[in-house]
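Data deposition worksheet. Section B asks for the primary sequence of the deposited chain exactly as it was used as input, without tags or linkers unless they were present during the calculation. Section C holds the resulting structure in token form. Section D is free text for depositor observations; keep each observation to a single sentence. Incomplete worksheets are returned to the depositor.
Section A, Depositor: J.P.
Section B:
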Amino acid sequence: ILMLGSPCLWAQGKGSSSNLLSKMRGLMISADDSDSDMEAETVDLRGHVQIIFKDQHLSCDHARVNYRSKTIDAEGNVLLVGPKATVVSEKIYLDYESNSGVIYNGSVKSGSVYFEGAMITRASETDYMADKAKFTTCTNCPESWSFSGQKIRAELGGYAYIKNSFL
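Section C:
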């Protein structure tokens, strides 16, 4: 085991690549490679990134964690799994303290509720606002029906409000 700069960060050899692990400020982090900036309080993660915080698990190809602003900027095959919803996207910017953020070219699934959009703003784990979006609660594939709209505000476990909707 090789220590890397922080008393909470170490590398563990696995064949030709190494796996970096860290438990710092409430986050459990795993990645193939990382660079940290102690002054800026950031860490850049690359390859098989896994971040566990509160009761959620985020995986992606690349991420930057900013401990000062309590944010995660993740991109590439982003998957965020929580107890109430699963988010899939190309990119996500997340405030892990307030559980809010922005999801780019993504989708949210919670039970039978499914919606997707070019940009989805996450106000909380249950309140979302999606632009250029599609919404359905139909569970068959392909879905029998869906709404498309300029903006969709979805409350998981509640209502969806759709502006300029098309069924």
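Section D:
Residues 1-18 have pLDDT under 50 and may be disordered.
The chain is about 0% helix and 70% strand.
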